[in-house]
Design brief:
single chain; 392 residues; mainly alpha; three-stranded antiparallel sheet; elongated
Length: 392
């Protein structure tokens, strides 16, 4: 019949739809459980690795190794918001804190400890202008005026002013109103040597007057822009002048602190402090190497003061020495003797002995200077310029 035939296909369609729905629902329902089950070992694996519990699974052993980067990454990424921080979190925070504090403390302490005291030569170095050295083009000694002019108008030239200041046991040439230094003793600050100064041709150069800041160096570091009067004043400023051993001064040339220092180390702080004072006073620049050398020297004597002046005594006011000082000096120069020269005076007799003066100081102490050729005690040793008059 048509009715029965028509009903059969309808039931088949219904049954097929139900079968398809069942097939689809089954796998989907099965997929849900594996996803939930797989999440469980991932969450518990770090706990096992941290506590060291054996999982019993061969595949779990490598991932639980503390040296495995992958395991570390898994532990960090799988932490839940509510979980407590593990050992790896604490280990990360402690080094971070130490890195922040450690470098800060020593740097602050060091800066405080090395800050120079105000008023010292070391502090004054920071005020100097640092520049490159200009060419020496146009430099001549005459650019700084007449050598040893009487700038202070005290009646004596600068060279004799400085000799009178820096020498002891000074004697002046007669008829010069106490200006021209004829002889004296220099304890050289650069070398520490004791030098007998005697005025005369061939002997006067044993003691020279040093420009602490050399004129050529000053020319290259600002003096070429000065007027003539300022340059002359600079060349005759007692603060920039020292009586020193001639050969040692020649070895210095026009050197600055970076290229030359006195061989006597005990005087280097005072020497460099004076260079700083002169350059600061006249606005002269320094090279970077010169500034660094100044700091290195003055760092060994951070309390070294900055000198402001070193005046000369004026005519006839040089440091004199008494008989005791003369005897001490003669003894130092003639250690085998009695400490002073043996003299019989002008008569030429002293127990039948001949007159002998160890040096001009001894002759002056005996009242015999100047000693003329033919006088008792005269010798070529006392008459260095060979003019027939010793100890003049």
């Amino acid at each position: 019949m048509r009715t029965a035939a028509t009903g059969t296909p309808v039931r088949l369609v219904v049954l097929a739809g139900a079968l398809v729905a069942g097939l689809v629902a089954g796998p989907l329902a099965g997929c849900t459980a594996p996803v939930s089950d797989a999440a469980t070992p991932v969450a518990t694996a770090p706990t096992d690795a941290a506590t060291g519990a054996a999982s019993g699974s061969p595949s779990a052993a490598p991932s639980s190794s503390p040296h495995d980067p992958a395991a570390t990454a898994t532990r960090s990424s799988s932490a839940t918001p509510g979980s407590s921080p593990g050992p790896s979190t604490s280990a990360t925070k402690k080094p971070a804190a130490s890195r922040t504090v450690s470098p800060t403390t020593p740097s602050t302490t060091s800066a405080t400890a090395t800050a120079p005291r105000p008023g010292t030569a070391l502090a004054a170095v920071a005020t100097l202008t640092v520049k490159g050295r200009a060419p020496l083009t146009g430099y001549e000694r005459s650019e700084f005026g007449q050598a040893w002019a009487d700038v202070d108008r005290n009646g004596c030239d600068t060279r004799n002013d400085v000799l009178g200041r820096d020498l002891v046991a000074v004697a002046y040439k007669p008829g010069t109103r106490g200006c021209v230094v004829a002889s004296g003793l220099l304890v050289d600050p650069y070398s520490g040597d004791r030098i007998d100064f005697l005025r005369g041709q061939g002997s006067s150069t044993e003691v020279q007057i040093d420009h602490v800041v050399a004129l050529a160096d000053a020319w290259q570091k600002g003096a070429q822009r000065w007027d003539a009067a300022r340059r002359e004043r600079f060349a005759n400023d007692p603060l920039n002048l020292r009586a020193v051993d001639g050969p040692t001064n020649a070895s210095k040339g026009a050197g600055d602190t970076a290229t030359w220092l006195p061989p006597r180390k005990a005087f280097r702080c005072e020497y460099v402090a004076r260079q700083v004072a002169v350059k600061s006073s006249y606005g002269l620049s320094v090279t970077a190497a010169e500034r660094d050398a100044m700091r290195r020297v003055l760092a060994t004597c951070p309390r070294q003061s900055l000198p402001t002046s070193d005046p000369v005594p004026g005519p006839g006011r040089a440091k004199q020495s008494g008989a005791a000082a003369e005897a001490k000096r003669a003894g130092a120069e003639n250690p085998g003797g009695s400490g002073s020269a043996t003299s019989s005076g002008a008569s030429g007799s002293a127990g039948g002995g001949s007159v002998y003066y160890a040096n001009c100081d001894a002759a002056r102490a005996a009242g015999a200077a100047p000693v003329h050729e033919g006088d008792p005690g005269y010798s070529r040793r006392l008459d260095r310029d060979g003019d027939g008059v010793g100890c003049e």
